[in-house]
Amino acid sequence: MSFDLVFFGGTGDLTWRKLMPALFQAFRHGKLPAGGRILAVARDERSDDDYRAFIKERFHEVESSKRPSDDEFARFAELLHYRRMDLSQPDDYAGLKAWLDERGADTVVLYLATSPHLFTAICQQLGNAGLNAPHVRVVLEKPLGHDLSSAREINQVVKAVFNERQAFRIDHYLGKPAVQNLMALRFGNALFEPLWRRESISNIQITLAEGLGVGTRGDYYDNTGALRDMIQNHALQLLTMIAMEPPSTNDADAIRDEKLKVLKSLKPFTAESVVRDVVRGQYRAGNVDGKKVPAYLDEVKVPTGSHCETFVAIRTEVQNWRWAGVPFYLRTGKRLAARDAQIVVNFRPVPHPIFPGTNRANKLVIKLQPEDGLELHLSAAKGSGVSDTLAPVSLDLDFDKAFPTERVGAYERLLLDAIAGRLNLFVRSDEQEEAWRWVEPVLEAWDRERKSGGEGPRGYAAGSWGPAAASALVARDGFAWSEEQ
C-alpha cells in the first residue's frame, strides 16, 4: 500500500520531538508500509536535504536507544521531503494537491501538528483545494477546542469537509501499550468480568501525575490548565475504558458507542457539587529530586496573580446499574512527588474476616508510566509457625519482561493506525463534545470565582502529592489515595 503522510507544522516541536522519532521506530521495526513518502510543510524556505539535516540534528535529542545509526538514518531520510507552504494561501494548497496527485498514493494522511486555532482554516482550505477525497484522512492533535463551543465549531468545519471515517482525533494516551492491555484485560479474559461491578468494587482511582513543571511553556499552559490539558481528554478516556460495557465487536464504532454511553452517564456537576467534589491546586516552591524548584507564579511567562490550576482532583460517579454508588476519583497535577500514571481498582473487603491481623482488601493496579504492567494485591498466610496471620502479597506482571521484544510506542501505534485507517484508538466527535459538556460547569464555576475576586487554587508544595483537600476528598468516603493506603 503506497501512502503519503503530510505534517502541517513540519518544523514544530511536536513533529521533531514525537512524530518523526515514532515514524523512525516504525521504519526500524519494519512496520512502516513500503512505498511511503513523508512530507513536512512549513513557512521556511528549505530543500529536502536541508530538512533531512534538520531532523538528523534533532534526533540527537531523543532517547539514546531510539537514535538511528548513520546508515539507518540515511535509509529513513530517503522517505523525507519538504515543501514550503503559507497556510493562509489557497495557491499553496493547490500546489500541495498537485504534488500529491503526481504520484497518486493509495492513502494520504494529513496530520495537523499545528496550533489548534489553525484547524478550521486549514480544513476549509483543504476542502476548497479538493484535498478531501475518500482516500484522504486528517489527523487532529489535542487540544481540540478550549471549551464546548469551540470544540463544536472545529467539529462542524471538519465534518463539512471530511466524513467521520476520515477524521482521526488523536489522544496519545490511547496508544500506550498498557491502555491497549486494559481492553485485553477486560474483554479478552473471563476472570474479571464477574467482579467488574458495584457489588465487588468499592472505588476506582485514576492518577496522571507529573514531576515536571511548566518550564518555558508558561504562557501556553496558563491558557489551558490541568482540567483542559489532562482531565477532559486523557483521564476521561481512561475512565470510559474502565467503565464501559462490553462492545458487541472490536469495530471502532462499537467501542466508541459504549464509551459515549459512559460519558453520558457521568454524574453532572452543579455549582454546589463543584465546590464539594472538585479540588484545584497550584504548585508553590518546593523540592523535587533534591533540587529546589520555583512556584508556578515564578515560572517564565506566567502572568502575575494567575488563577490557573496545575492540579485537579475530582470525585464523580457513573450513574448506571453496573456502577451505581461507586466513586471514581480522577487526579492530575504538575510538580507532584513522582511521574506516575496508573489506574487503581479497589475491591470490597471480605464480608466477614476470619483471620487475625490485617485483612486488606484486594486491589488491581494498572500501571501506565513510567512502568507498564499489572499488579494484583492479595492477602496470604505468612507460613511461619502456626500463625494464621495474613500478610499482603502482590502478583506483578511487568509487560516489558513478559514481552521482551521492543514494544510499539504510543505515537508509533497511532501513526500506523492512521495510515491503515483503523479508528479504534481515536476519539469520535460526539465523545469529545460530551467530555467538554461534562467539564464545562467546572470551568464556568472557576471563572465566576475568579471574576468575583476569590482566592483561587489551593497551594501545594512542589514535590508533594497536591493539596491536603485532595486527600480529604477521598477520606470523606472512607478511602485513601493509593500511596496513602
UniProtKB/TrEMBL annotation:
Keywords: Carbohydrate metabolism, Glucose metabolism, NADP, Oxidoreductase. It comes from the Bacteria. The keyword Oxidoreductase applies. Residues 6-181 form the Glucose-6-phosphate dehydrogenase NAD-binding domain. Substrate binds at residues 172, 176, 210, 229, 334. It is an enzyme of class 1 (oxidoreductase). GO terms for biological process: glucose metabolic process; pentose-phosphate shunt, oxidative branch. It holds the Pfam family G6PD_N. One of its GO terms (molecular function) is NADP binding. It catalyses: D-glucose 6-phosphate + NADP(+) = 6-phospho-D-glucono-1,5-lactone + NADPH + H(+). NADP(+) binds at residues 43, 86-87, 142. Pathway: Carbohydrate degradation; pentose phosphate pathway; D-ribulose 5-phosphate from D-glucose 6-phosphate (oxidative stage): step 1/3. Catalyzes the oxidation of glucose 6-phosphate to 6-phosphogluconolactone. Belongs to the glucose-6-phosphate dehydrogenase family. NCBIfam families: PRK12853.1-3, zwf. PANTHER family: GLUCOSE-6-PHOSPHATE 1-DEHYDROGENASE, GLUCOSE-6-PHOSPHATE 1-DEHYDROGENASE G6PD. This is Glucose-6-phosphate 1-dehydrogenase. The gene is zwf.
